[in-house]
Design goal:
Alpha-Beta Plaits; single chain; alpha+beta; 3 strands
Length: 80
């Protein structure tokens, strides 16, 4: 399986999804279906929820396929 890493943001927090780690437990969409809906494209829509709810749900991911970072804490990329 080719590893895919995708990022989805609500402007304040960014959800990072790594397909190679996903075990399809379903915790994400059972816990916060307004953000995680695997039958749609895109399947993650963080703009539909608050940051606190997103963080709480991402922390329930048993495989580590879902992680997050606060946009205010991500270092800026320097381009040469």
């Amino acid at each position: 399986m080719r590893e895919v890493v995708k990022e989805y943001t609500n402007g304040e927090v960014t959800i990072v999804w790594k397909n190679a780690l996903c075990i399809h437990s379903g915790n994400c969409f059972r816990g916060l279906s307004k953000v995680f809906h695997p039958w749609d494209i895109p399947w993650i829509t963080p703009e539909k929820s608050g940051t606190g709810e997103i963080i709480a749900q991402v922390n329930q991911c048993p495989s580590g396929a879902l992680t997050y970072y606060m946009n205010s804490e991500k270092p800026l990329e320097i381009k040469s």
